[in-house]
């Protein structure tokens, strides 16, 4: 009985903020938040040398409208568990900088157990932790930026209810298994030389070059990059003399190790730079993001037109669709609502 009262108290005292709202009934909270992991997913984990309790890492790609869940396997490295097509995100390519800009953020975030939200009106959700330490120091504002269901976004990343329920369960079990927090890498696109070349004139290119260092490290090593902040940017896999930098805006302090520390990563970065320069030869760059407002995975577009937004949010079959890359200039007719 006390559990029910405490849940009701939480629902009554919570306030609307960003993409978060209260839930209508205690029963709804309990059912959504504690549903067991499917036997199909457990079997897939076993086949890949994983358990439900192994740590996870999440990567989000705006332009492709995809969310990847990676899980650490018996080798100690991360392997791709599943790719989810994203139903909706708002804004354009580039980081979120202020409240009300309708931008979905880009950067590196850590999600702990307390950031899982069973009380979201958008089925289930977890808070990304925007603004992170670097973003706060830079003066970026905003709050309650979530990954949630309901296929509706105003600065968040939205999946179907079924999709976010599966991700929520995977995250819950990893955190119960002992992972303190899981890393989320929110990225504008797969950071290939071709995509970097296409967006070379974008005002966010310098920022993207910075976060690509963390992307490259994970691509090569399949290990979680250590993320620090100094000199107004991210620093990856660096051990600083005297410990972690205390001021993200101050110049980076001396370090005994700099950069990735992995020659294979350095080789990839050098090769990518050469490939990007070659791709730029005689080809136009993209100066504006092609979407009118955010994006939606192509898998959902026909369903949206045929069934409408409310039914689309409940769609379950698309959590297992084969992922195909979206066309680069699809205008999204759907306007997000809160």
From TrEMBL:
Q: In which pathway does it act?
A: Cell wall biogenesis; peptidoglycan biosynthesis
User: EC number(s) per UniProt?
Assistant: 2.-.-.-
Kindly give the InterPro entries that the UniProt entry links to this protein: LD_TPept_cat_dom (IPR005490), Transpep_catalytic_dom (IPR038063)
Which Pfam families would you find in this protein's record? YkuD (PF03734)
What are the positions of the active site?
148, 156
Which sequence ranges are marked TM in the entry?
none
**Which keywords fit this entry according to its UniProt record?**
Cell shape, Cell wall biogenesis/degradation, Peptidoglycan synthesis, Signal, Transferase
Query: What protein name is recorded for this chain?
Result: Murein L,D-transpeptidase family protein
List the source organism: Mesorhizobium album
């Amino acid at each position: 009985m006390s559990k029910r009262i405490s849940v009701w108290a939480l629902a009554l005292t919570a306030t609307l903020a960003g993409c978060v709202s209260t839930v209508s009934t205690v029963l709804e909270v309990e059912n959504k938040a504690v549903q067991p992991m499917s036997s199909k997913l457990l079997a897939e984990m076993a086949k890949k040398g994983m358990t439900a309790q192994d740590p996870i890492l999440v990567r989000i790609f705006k332009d492709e409208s995809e969310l990847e869940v990676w899980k650490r396997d018996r080798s100690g490295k991360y392997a791709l568990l599943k790719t989810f097509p994203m139903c909706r995100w708002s804004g354009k390519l580039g980081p979120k900088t202020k409240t009300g800009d309708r931008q979905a953020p880009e950067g590196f975030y850590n999600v702990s157990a307390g950031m899982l939200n069973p009380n979201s009106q958008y089925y289930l959700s977890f808070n990304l932790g925007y603004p992170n330490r670097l973003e706060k120091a830079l003066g970026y504002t905003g709050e309650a930026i979530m990954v949630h269901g309901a296929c509706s976004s105003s600065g968040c990343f939205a999946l179907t209810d079924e999709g976010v329920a599966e991700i929520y369960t995977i995250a819950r079990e990893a955190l119960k298994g002992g992972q303190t927090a899981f890393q989320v890498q929110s990225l504008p696109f797969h950071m290939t030389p071709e995509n970097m070349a296409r967006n070379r004139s974008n005002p966010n290119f310098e920022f993207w070059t910075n976060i690509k260092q963390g992307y490259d490290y994970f691509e090569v090593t399949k290990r979680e990059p250590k993320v620090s902040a100094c000199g107004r940017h991210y620093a990856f896999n660096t051990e600083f003399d005297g410990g972690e930098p205390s001021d993200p805006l101050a110049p980076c302090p001396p370090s005994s190790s700099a950069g990735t520390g992995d020659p294979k990563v350095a080789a990839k970065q050098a090769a990518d730079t050469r490939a990007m320069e070659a791709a730029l030869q005689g080809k136009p760059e993209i100066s504006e993001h092609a979407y009118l407002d955010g994006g939606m995975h192509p898998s959902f577009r026909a369903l949206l037109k045929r069934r409408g937004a409310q039914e689309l949010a409940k769609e379950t079959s698309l959590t297992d669709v084969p992922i195909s890359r979206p066309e680069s200039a699809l205008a999204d007719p759907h306007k997000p609502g809160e």
